[in-house]
Amino acid sequence: MWVHLEVLNLADVTRMVTAAAPEARPERIDEIARLVHRDSAGSPFVAGELLRHLAAIGQLELGATLEHLPVPDSVLDVVAQRLARLPEGARELLTFAAVIGPSFDLDVLAAVVGRPDDDVLDLLDEVDRAGMVSEIGVEQFAFSHAIVRAALLDELTPTRRARAHRRVAEALEARSPDQFDELAHHRRLAGVDSKSTPTWPERRAATWLRLHSSQLVPATRK
Length: 222
Prior knowledge:
This protein is mainly alpha-helical. It folds into three domains: 10-70, no CATH class; 87-153, Winged helix-like DNA-binding domain superfamily/Winged helix DNA-binding domain (Arc Repressor Mutant, subunit A), CATH 1.10.10.10; 156-210, no CATH class. It is 60% helix and 5% strand. It has helices spanning 10-20, 26-40, 44-56, 73-84, 90-100, 106-113, 117-129, 146-154, 158-175, 180-189, 200-212; strands at residues 103-105, 133-137, 140-143. It has a three-stranded antiparallel β-sheet. Helix 1 (10-20) crosses helix 2 (26-40), helix 1 (10-20) runs parallel beside helix 3 (44-56) and helix 9 runs antiparallel to helix 10. The N and C termini lie far apart (73 Å).
């Protein structure tokens, strides 16, 4: 996706952080290096921009523990340019994929967008060639860069994001009802009333009964 330079490993990024923040505590350097390496996927350009942005906002040497790095506008601009070059329909597809998670299954994504699996696969092949996703298994894909997913999610308003999570929950309900944690996650983010939704133990019990109902034959009296 980015300019083709040699991919950085974690040790490379750690050296970059150390050079940029020589006064930082070793544990802070390790924390920032891990996050920068994860979110940049080893891209020298993205890693450098992330570090410059952290330094500019005063979060490089000091600051609270971070789970997600703020994405600088320079990186968002590059992502936007790359997304604009994708074929028609690919951006919407990627947006729903981002809502599903860092990785996603072909059949679930196809159900969410309401398109045949083969059509979705054709678009994913194009996106894969653009370096935005990669195939990690049979009919399984993942975002190549956490920043691409973050940029797509940032474009969604709260209402649209909740509606997207609802569509994902409905697709999972129809295709993978046994994925209790995943289903509960998307229903919660969709704002579904938990009182009207079966709990995880209730769903698990219902699934067990469905799978084993043929074995539950009453004993006959003699």
